[in-house]
Amino acid sequence: MRNKVLKILQVVLALIFCISAGILCKQLLLDRLQNQSETRELKHTFLDEEPDTEDQGEKAEELPEDVALVDLDALKKDYPDIQAWITIPDTMIDYPVMQSTEKAPQYYLRRNYKKEWDINGSLFFQWNCKVPEGENLIIYGHNMNSGVQFGNLDLYLDADYERSHSRIFLQTLEGMEVFRIMAVLKADVDMFPFQQVNFSEDHTLDDYIQKARQMSLYEIEELTEEEPQVLTLITCAYDWREARLIIVAVREP
Q: I need a labelling partner for 174 at 20 to 30 A (CA). Which of 98, 116, 145, 229 fits?
């Protein structure tokens, strides 16, 4: 009788292991492939094959080969919550950026651009960011083990990686802008005001940049000239509760 019970327990444990492994495989592989496939299909569908460089801005004329313009006007007609498209060359980060409202600020935390349930969620602006003219454009995304969304931001913990991936391309309805990374840090909101979108004489945008640089995990060369706009990328870190991995980039002149 005892042997029979042990065999049943072994079978149950084996089934639990197989189911758990299947769920993990789905999350790490199948969900990742689906997420990437849907994003590539979206970009291909709305690719701007004959961009008007006057409308897109001067920076659109000299884009790297793996940075392609999308037709945001057409894209927003189908998906009004898409406010921008972000690309970091030679990484998996090549996504639309959503924005919801104050009533549902994290609406896209577990939804894709179609507003469908998706464990990977979407990249999204903080609800009160003024896109594209805001002083601090704040983008959130999940730190997925599969590497999708902001899962690869952990690579920026390596200074050598940052040096070879220091430029971030953000396309809005106003055109293409290029941001240069100025700081990579780990902090929570009590340590660093990464949610700040409005600045004053007492707490200026330059104060925000300099504090980020002071807290940076390693030193990054400062731009000699910079435009008064910052792009802040935020994802989860697991060093302590509420910890975030934060990348602060300044718009190139």
A: 116
Distance CA 57, CA 19 (A): 51
Q: 9-63 pLDDT, tens per residue?
A: 554 454 554 454 444 444 444 555 677 788 889 999 999 876 665 555 566 667 8
Per-residue tokens: 5: 């019970």
The pLDDT value recorded for residue 121 is 95
Partners of 249 in the β-ladder = 181, 231
Statement: residue 6 has pLDDT above 60: no
Nearest to 109 by CA among 127, 87, 95, 124: 124
67: which residues sit within 8 A by CB, 6+ positions away?
Answer: 87, 89, 169
pLDDT for 66 beyond 60: yes
- What pLDDT is stored for residue 4 in this prediction? 63
Q: Which residues pair with 180 in a beta bridge?
A: 167, 250
Element (H, E) at 84: strand 82-87
Q: In angstroms, how far is the first alpha carbon of the chain from the final one?
A: 78
- CB neighbours (10 Å) of residue 42? 21
Say how far apart CA 187 and CA 194 lie, in whole Å: 9
Closest CA to 35 of 174, 142, 160: 142
Return the closest-CA partner of residue 34 out of 120, 105, 98, 94: 120
